[in-house]
């Protein structure tokens, strides 16, 4: 493990997702401890996307942004909101020059699948329909997210393809949760890795799926056909249960003819890019911004 990251492990609050209400409070405290980000020259606006029910979003608009990404926060489908994602949405907008539309989707277990996906898809549709009002080109819209949010972004791309929905130019998937079956080597062996473990993944999927069987729109790795999807960037962490499903999904996309950039970050663990004092975390955040800039702003 990267020694700069390892030093922070004792500071992490417990979050095994067995007590969602308390875990959300701890997650919010952890996010609030992140260093303030630079919002100079950036407009930030809270809005509500009309849907059933309405979906709260926070829009980060850098000067002369030409494209937008519908951004979905992490938190195991159970934790996270617009405020906890604020430090990271701000940094991605600043480093990419792309408008970030952060989505406050409904959380499990109170709102199991497909609630979060429906919210995310509603925001994608709204973004495409209101591109002129937002000041972006409709052909420059991406989807992306961290962890559970990365899995949701992949599912949004699948649904948009299948339903001939809004065109998506790019998908930015950072350590995404893609496969509820947990059959990979990393899922079966990473039982005590920092912040995210096999048991935590099991609990997250149980909350998200509820009593329903998993479908490709819930767990994108289950999709039989990945052809026709948008180009993708997929990042995985070495010491993360999701690692092998991330790599496998990237390979399957490539085999289906989808352009993919895959970056496996050695010495890192799930979510460790939030430790901004570490050099490897700074590289990870910078790369997310640079990749998004190339995909949408160039």
TrEMBL record:
Membrane spanning residue stretches: none
Listed Pfam families: Abhydrolase_3
Start and end residues of each Alpha/beta hydrolase fold-3 domain: 69-272
Superkingdom of this protein's organism: Bacteria
UniProt-recorded Gene Ontology molecular function terms: hydrolase activity
Hydrolase recorded as keyword: yes
Keywords: Hydrolase
Glycoprotein recorded as keyword: no
Annotated signal peptide: none
PANTHER family xrefs: AB HYDROLASE SUPERFAMILY PROTEIN C4A8.06C (PTHR48081), ALPHA_BETA HYDROLASE FOLD-3 DOMAIN-CONTAINING PROTEIN-RELATED (PTHR48081:SF8)
Name listed for the protein in its UniProt record: Alpha/beta hydrolase
Organism expressing this protein natively: Streptomyces piniterrae
Source species taxonomy: Bacteria, Bacillati, Actinomycetota, Actinomycetes, Kitasatosporales
């Amino acid at each position: 493990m990267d020694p700069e990251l390892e030093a922070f492990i004792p500071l992490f609050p417990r979050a095994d997702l067995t007590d969602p209400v308390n875990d959300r409070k701890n997650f919010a405290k952890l996010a609030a401890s992140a260093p303030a980000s630079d919002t100079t020259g950036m407009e930030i606006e809270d809005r509500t996307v009309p849907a059933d029910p309405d979906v709260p979003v926070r829009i980060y608009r850098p000067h002369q942004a030409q494209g937008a990404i519908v951004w979905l926060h992490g938190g195991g489908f159970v934790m996270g909101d617009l405020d906890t994602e604020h430090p990271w949405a701000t940094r991605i907008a600043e480093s990419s020059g792309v408008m970030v539309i952060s989505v406050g989707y409904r959380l499990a277990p109170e709102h199991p699948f497909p609630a979060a996906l429906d919210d995310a898809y509603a925001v994608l549709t709204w973004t495409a329909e209101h591109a002129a009002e937002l000041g972006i080109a409709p052909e420059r819209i991406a989807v992306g997210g961290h962890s559970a949010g990365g899995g949701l972004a992949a599912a949004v791309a699948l649904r948009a393809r299948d339903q001939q929905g809004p065109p998506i130019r790019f998908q930015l998937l950072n350590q995404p949760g893609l496969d509820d079956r947990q059959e990979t080597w990393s899922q079966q062996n990473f039982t005590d890795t920092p912040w995210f473990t096999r048991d935590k993944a099991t609990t997250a999927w149980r909350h998200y799926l509820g009593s329903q069987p998993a479908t490709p729109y819930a767990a994108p790795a289950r999709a039989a056909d990945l052809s026709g999807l948008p180009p993708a960037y997929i990042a995985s962490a070495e010491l993360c249960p999701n690692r092998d499903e991330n790599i496998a999904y990237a390979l399957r996309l490539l085999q289906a003819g989808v352009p993919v950039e895959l970056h496996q970050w050695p010495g890192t663990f799930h979510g460790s890019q939030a430790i901004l004092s570490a050099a490897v975390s700074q590289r990870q955040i910078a790369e997310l911004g640079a990749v998004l800039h190339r995909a949408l702003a160039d």
